[in-house]
Design goal:
single chain, two-stranded antiparallel sheet, 4 strands, 8% strand
Length: 154
Amino acid sequence: MLQVEMTDDIRKYQPKFMGPFTARQCVCILIALIVAIPITIIFPVSQPSYKIFVFCIAMAPIVACGYIKLDGAYFEVLLLRAIYTMFLSSPKRKQVSHNTIAEYLEYLNKQKEKKMMSKMTKRQLKKYNAAKESKKVVRYYNNTPAEKQFKIYK
């Protein structure tokens, strides 16, 4: 199969529908007129220059949908994306990450605690559990005998 690279001018070509306008531009202008004419008639101002200004302001965003195209996206798509990012989505996104080293160290501490608790007498175990429930700081010591493996600090 033959492949030929095309220039940008050919890719940007749009077939004309009526005069210098494409079908999309004609539809957008028609919708803009349908929206802007009743707004101009209803707008309560006696000077015609103000009515023309209101007419142009009412038509501008709808006509822009037919003409403006950035990076392959039309104006209404760009406008919806901007509204979503500015107003509908949360400005601060929470980054959730798992610290595997901290989780592993916590696992090792639990293993040490289980090992230490298995070596304790019932009296020491009761004292140790009471200290844990009262939320006092408990320090573990590895190199000492089983009776002195923990200290409770207030």
